[in-house]
Amino acid sequence: MEYEAVIGLEVHVELKTKTKIFCSSTTEFGGEPNTHTCPVCLGLPGVLPVLNKKVLEYAIRAALALNCEIAEYSKFDRKNYYYPDMPKNYQISQYDLPLARNGYLDIEIEGRTRRIGITRVHMEEDTGKLVHQGTITTTPYSLVDYNRAGVPLIEIVSEPDLRSPEEARVYMEKLRSIIQYTGVSDCKMEEGSLRCDANVSVRPKGAKEFGTKTEIKNMNSFRALYRALSYEVQRQIDVLEEGGRIVQETRTWDEGRGVTLPMRSKEEAHDYRYFPEPDLVPLVIDRQWVEEIRAALPELPDQRRQRYIRDFGLPAYDASVLTATVELADYFEACVARYPDAKTVSNWVMGELARLLNAHNMEITQCRITPEQLADMLRLIDQGTISGKIAKTVFEEMFVTGNHPEKIVREKGLVQITDEGAIATVVEEVMAKNPKVVEDYRAGKEKALGFLVGQVMKATRGKANPEIVNRLFKERL
User: Fold this and answer.
1) Are strands 73-74 and 69-70 parallel, antiparallel or unpaired?
2) Model's pTM, two decimal places?
């Protein structure tokens, strides 16, 4: 039997406000354990939460970017459950009257556009963090750091519209890109600013009914999301093929072993005993304020991609890569503002720069090459001062040192040789040393010319102007 996956994602995004959602404690990442806390976020008796207005503004901005309808009336609820990292033993979240509903996000997959529905976007507070320390004598123990407790979150819940692990990965990447563009979160997965849970089931292809779902937690990278979903989909298919049944449960992803493992039985809404948060008044959201936030939205990835195709004449692929993150797009545009050949800039940014960033595990924001320096290097190529091949050597040196290209060219003696007399001497020497190759070319073997040109470039350490070299060979041959 052929099966298909049914996947929905619950994405948690930490908002980058300066203070927490219901108190004035800092949201700064890290710090000594339990130093970014106060009586409110520790849930001490007698304290009262007060909503941070910036959290509401950021949540509305993100929801609008995801094409959601903003509620006129919304409220907070208590979600009751006991985890060691929840100081109050309940979480302030939103249940039946969330901030936003009925959004969507379009993804490109295998040359076609798929619209993924977004059920809701709601606000809530983050939990603390457990630090597992090993054992005291023979008993395992953990410590609790409440610095993260009360950091503002939005939860973005998709419809079960995703049909493969690859679609889920592309959706997650597109979602991160949109949220980054809005400026409401840095979306650093390595710091927990963007986290994802997945609900996944399988069913016979063509069936209308959903199968029994499992929830997978503990996925903190796109690679982990793809691998965990791939494993879980195949696991469920194997269970059904063997005549078993899927148990609704929460599972965790073990990155080292590459498997999902059961954690606990899956909770339903009634298990959390939701009820309206008595310490917070409901939200009546002013329509004019919502429209002001909408009008202030920045240019989003799809809009920027279309502009690059329309105004810069870039291929759709280049435009998609360059607009994947707002930082990369800003860097590209800063380069084009100084060197207005967009395709040449795109080739260098997507080629040599991307290669070096990946090799050094760096982000574009950490790059030492400024847009001014890249533009100046491209002008050196145009002026004939350096060749395209030498430029790659110069570019690597710029990446490592941050030095200006002219300084590197001058100090390392990389100026291109354009003296025809000097190049002609080398050309004639190469022809004299390789008579067989010369005859091959004259006999119609075009590839022989490439060998001869290569010998000249080798003899001049890549500094001879390749156009002059090719012309001189053709004149003599």
Assistant:
1) unpaired
2) 0.84
